UniProtKB/TrEMBL annotation:
One of its GO terms (biological process) is protein folding. The keyword Isomerase applies. Its EC number is 5.2.1.8. It is an enzyme of class 5 (isomerase). InterPro entries: PPIase_dom_sf (IPR046357), PPIase_FKBP_dom (IPR001179), PPIase_FKBP_N (IPR000774), PPIase_FKBP_N_sf (IPR036944). It comes from the Bacteria. This is Peptidyl-prolyl cis-trans isomerase. Keywords: Isomerase, Rotamase, Signal. Gene3D superfamilies: 3.10.50.40, Peptidyl-prolyl cis-trans isomerase, FKBP-type, N-terminal domain. Belongs to the FKBP-type PPIase family.
Length: 203
């Protein structure tokens, strides 16, 4: 392989590796970094230089930074979610249950209603309150099969009220979804979720 091709191959590999690392960091909740110090640390590591921080110091800094960021995100997400749900009740077609779950009936079904111990087949499309799609069986083109009592609490409650053939839009407060822990990626701590759920059958 010529030197030019080898250099190009290394350039492409390095860029691809950078994309992969950045993607993993973003998925972990890291929003931004100082690019100069980030690159300095990488260069020091590859050059075998003595790092400016010990492993223990680095781990402590990472833990403290991520904890502070998560706490801030949790508070912001909770506030935004509560505001959204309060305003959502201005829609006369939205119903709120005693638990705080909100739903809108898009299509009324006339089949049976599942119990908590049943398995169901559903199509669903999940978004954040800003419209970001985080999961969708509709986009995958394959409905999901799962036990009613094996999903988040907002779903457990809603599914038992839905008749087969129904399609509902669920507005799920964080305490009926993934709570303070979140679910990684797009679903941060205290995140309110929206799902369009179509109950296809009880299996």
């Amino acid at each position: 392989m010529s030197e030019q091709k080898e250099n190009k191959r290394l350039e492409d590999f390095s860029y691809a590796l950078g994309l992969s690392i950045a993607s993993n960091l973003i998925q972990s909740g890291v929003k931004t970094v100082d690019p100069v110090n980030f690159m300095n640390a990488i260069e020091d590591a590859f050059a075998g230089k003595q790092p400016k921080l010990s492993v223990q110091q680095a781990n402590q800094i990472l833990q403290e930074f991520m904890s502070e960021q998560q706490s801030g995100d949790a508070a912001n997400n909770l506030e935004e979610g509560l505001k959204f749900l309060a305003e959502n009740l201005n829609d006369p077609k939205v119903t709120e249950t005693a638990s705080g779950l909100q739903y809108k009936v898009l299509t009324d079904g006339d089949g049976e209603k599942p119990s908590a111990t049943d398995e169901v087949r559903c199509h669903y499309h999940g978004t954040l309150i800003d419209g970001t799609v985080f999961d969708s069986s509709v986009q995958r083109g394959e409905p999901a099969v799962f036990p009613v009592n094996g999903v988040i609490q907002g779903w457990v409650e809603a599914l038992q009220m839905m008749a087969v053939g129904s399609k509902w839009r669920l507005f799920i407060p964080s305490d009926l979804a993934y709570g303070e822990r979140g679910a990684g990626g797009s679903i941060g701590p205290n995140t309110t979720l929206i799902f369009d759920v179509e109950l296809l059958e009880i299996v």
